[in-house]
Automatic annotation (TrEMBL):
GO terms for biological process: coenzyme A biosynthetic process; pantothenate catabolic process. Its EC number is 4.1.1.36, 6.3.2.5. It catalyses: N-[(R)-4-phosphopantothenoyl]-L-cysteine + H(+) = (R)-4'-phosphopantetheine + CO2; (R)-4'-phosphopantothenate + L-cysteine + CTP = N-[(R)-4-phosphopantothenoyl]-L-cysteine + CMP + diphosphate + H(+). GO terms for cellular component: phosphopantothenoylcysteine decarboxylase complex. Catalyzes two steps in the biosynthesis of coenzyme A. In the first step cysteine is conjugated to 4'-phosphopantothenate to form 4-phosphopantothenoylcysteine, in the latter compound is decarboxylated to form 4'-phosphopantotheine. The gene is coaBC. It comes from Brumimicrobium salinarum. CTP binds at residues 104, 114, 130-133, 149, 163, 167. Residues 15-224 are annotated as: Phosphopantothenate--cysteine ligase. The keyword Membrane applies. In the C-terminal section; belongs to the PPC synthetase family. In the N-terminal section; belongs to the HFCD (homo-oligomeric flavin containing Cys decarboxylase) superfamily. This is Coenzyme A biosynthesis bifunctional protein CoaBC.
């Protein structure tokens, strides 16, 4: 087991973490999803547990495994299910880290029966999902802290700063798919942290476990 200094301990903290992709059903056998593996969220949960925190992990479909006496794992499929679980648990937590790759849209209708390949073209109408992180940013209490992620392909810091503000975050983890070996499916990440004071901290390419440690080390130095 690792030892942390008092300021780096989370033994008095209960943390909500979102992880993984969401699956948005089209019909009983099909869905629209994304390439998120859940690794980053699970690494964050593991690091919080190491520091003594109690963790509620709300995760979309993933192969990742984690079990611990202080861990409550809630498995969900869709963004709407994730929204409900998050709103049920956040008020009882000291803070949250939102690393899930939530689908921005879902099919407007879920066909009751399997859709047959009767036509040459098929159009799926999509409607917007709720922004779970933004909705929590709008209701978080003074003493609750909030960390978000921003996945960008271009103008990462500009978009990251906008999301930090719009979602009422204390810290945002910016990662760009431009960096080779970073992001979906990889075991590594290249992150930049942007805090509410507009301070930017860049990290080299690291494993997701190391990235999780860096994120929490940083959070615990800025958090009141
Ligand atoms: N997020 C969320 N609920 C959504 C969409 C995003 O909770 N419906 C969270 C993600 O978990 C992440 C942050 O919001 O912590 C930013 O997600 P991202 O996809 O980068 O940004 P969006 O706000 O969805 O904007 P866009 O995809 O247009 O860049
Ligand atoms: Ca998005």
């Amino acid at each position: 087991t690792e030892h942390f200094t008092i300021s780096q301990s989370m033994s008095n903290q209960k943390v909500l973490i979102t992880a993984g992709p969401t699956y948005e059903s089209i019909d009983p056998v099909r869905f629209i999803g994304n390439h998120s593996t859940g690794k980053m969220g699970f690494a964050l949960a593991e690091n919080c547990l190491k520091r003594g925190a109690e963790v509620v992990l709300v995760t979309g479909p993933t192969q990742c495994k984690l079990s611990h006496s202080r861990l409550t794992r809630i498995d969900v499929q869709s963004a709407n299910e994730m929204y409900t679980a998050v709103h049920e648990h956040f008020s009882g937590c000291n803070g949250g880290i939102f690393s899930a790759a939530v689908s921005d849209y879902r099919p407007n209708q879920i066909a009751e029966q399997k859709i047959k390949k009767s036509q040459d073209k098929m159009v799926v109408e999509m409607v917007k999902n709720p922004d779970i992180l933004k909705s929590i940013g709008a209701v978080k209490k003074q003493n609750q802290w909030l960390v978000g992620f921003a996945l960008e392909t271009n103008d990462a810091l500009k978009y990251g700063a906008e999301k930090l503000k719009k979602k009422n975050l204390d810290l945002i983890v910016v990662n760009t798919l431009q960096d080779k070996g970073a992001g979906f499916g990889f075991d590594t990440n290249k992150i930049t942290l942007l805090d509410f004071n507009n301070k930017t901290t860049k990290f080299e390419l690291t494993t997701k476990k190391e990235a999780a440690k860096n994120i929490l080390d940083y959070l615990l130095t800025i958090k009141k």
